[in-house]
TrEMBL record:
Cofactor(s) the protein needs: Zn(2+)
GO terms for biological process, alphabetical: galactose catabolic process via UDP-galactose, Leloir pathway
NCBIfam families: galT_1
Protein name from the UniProt record: Galactose-1-phosphate uridylyltransferase
Molecular function (Gene Ontology), one example: zinc ion binding
Species of provenance: Tsukamurella conjunctivitidis
Domain of life: Bacteria
Residues annotated as domain Galactose-1-phosphate uridyl transferase N-terminal: 53-203
Pathway named in the protein's UniProt entry: Carbohydrate metabolism; galactose metabolism
Residues noted as binding Zn(2+) in the record, renumbered to the chain: 76, 79, 142, 193
Enzyme Commission (EC) number: 2.7.7.12
Length: 366
């Protein structure tokens, strides 16, 4: 039985974008967004082009060049501002907030109906950049981080992700929902306020398509589920297990690509976050916090990382909800750069064995 998620408090920003407040202690006190913002486009301003040599989709979004870049703290667009003059969030305070990105890579304007696709030209295929891009503010504390949230607060973030996943997967213009967090300047973060993003893609991304192809081939060859088999094998081996609870298992994968990497699986096979029970969501939030705190304990400075959630539609033939957390830092003072082999051929070379990575993380987990 899946859990009930309280409906967020909904409001609108000055340009009409939706903003949602998720709270554990009742509705927040909201202000009014008084900023003078340009009107939202009535047609898509980004496009998706298909690379004819690989079949990859590439989002062309030149307007994102104008997105907010390292503003002074007093002008942080993610801090609460009850005056409604300098921030996206016109409120005295908040717990978790989700709003439509002001500079989206993908967006479907209200009432927009795309023209039928024209595939006559086999080399040049372009479609409007439909979908949805949202910002998820994990907390109002500008100097905070996900790792420093309480377990109750982290669970509220999980509920916000779950709510948005269910809502976005129900849309006809969205094929895949991706929740993620970029953390640290080394990763490319330009707003230090603790936040993540949600992308609703109009197509299946390359990584997801590859995972599903491999899973389908495994089923054809072995008659079982690939992700069930991976989890069972890691548990049986034990050398790379980091945390295991009643409902959740975290481990370093057998063929880890990154110098710090951990995967998190619910023990029960579910497709996306909205299918979790209350007990599973509690455990997931707790284990996730353990891993993020372990990441930060490895070296003398907070670890730059990407947290990437893999989700699939309920009832899909293949797919298993899981998170991948990874960092480009390979030692206290060195980064792993994606150079020729990784960037040019997507052929990873790693400097650490997965068993060594697991040992380092277990040491700081305690």
């Amino acid at each position: 039985m899946t859990r009930e998620i309280a409906a967020p408090t909904a409001s609108r920003l000055a340009d009409g974008r939706e903003i949602l407040f998720f709270s554990s202690d009742g509705p927040p006190a909201l202000g009014v967004d008084h900023r003078d913002l340009p009107p939202r486009p009535t047609v898509p301003v980004t496009t998706v082009r298909r690379d004819p040599t690989t079949g990859d989709n590439v989002i062309i979004a030149p307007a994102r060049q104008e997105r907010t870049y390292k503003p002074p703290r007093t002008m942080c667009p993610l801090c609460p501002d009850p005056s409604g003059l300098s921030s996206e969030i016109a409120a005295e305070d908040y717990e978790v907030v989700v709003f439509e990105n002001r500079f989206p890579s993908l967006a479907t304007p209200a009432g927009y109906v795309p023209a039928p696709a024209d595939d006559a030209d086999g080399l040049r295929r372009e479609s409007p950049g439909l979908g949805r891009c949202e910002v998820v503010c994990f907390a109002s504390d500008h100097d905070g981080s996900f790792a420093r949230l309480s377990q109750r607060h982290a669970r509220l973030v999980v509920d916000a992700w779950s709510h948005r996943t269910a809502e976005l997967l129900a849309r006809d213009d969205i094929e895949e929902v991706y929740c993620f967090e970029n953390r640290g300047e080394e990763i490319g973060v330009t707003l230090p306020h603790p936040h993540g993003q949600i992308y609703g893609y109009p197509y299946r991304t390359r990584r997801t398509a590859a995972l599903l192809r491999t899973a389908a081939q495994y089923r054809a060859d072995h008659g079982g589920d690939l992700f069930d088999a991976v989890l069972a094998d890691e548990i049986a081996d034990g050398r790379r297990i980091l945390v295991r609870t009643e409902h959740v298992t975290a481990f370093v994968p057998y063929a880890a690509k990154w110098p710090v990497e951990a995967h998190v699986y619910p023990n029960r096979h579910v497709h996306n976050l909205s299918e979790l029970t209350d007990a599973e969501a509690d455990d997931l939030a707790a284990v996730y916090l353990v891993l993020l705190r372990a990441f930060d304990a490895l070296y003398d400075a907070p670890l730059p990382y990407i947290a990437s959630w893999h989700q699939y539609r309920t009832g899909a033939a293949e797919g298993y909800l899981h998170a991948e957390l990874f960092s480009i830092r390979r030692s206290a003072d060195k980064l792993k750069y994606l150079a020729g082999s990784e960037s040019g051929r997507d052929a990873f070379v790693t400097d650490k064995t997965p068993e060594a990575i697991a040992g380092e993380l277990r040491k700081v987990i305690g």
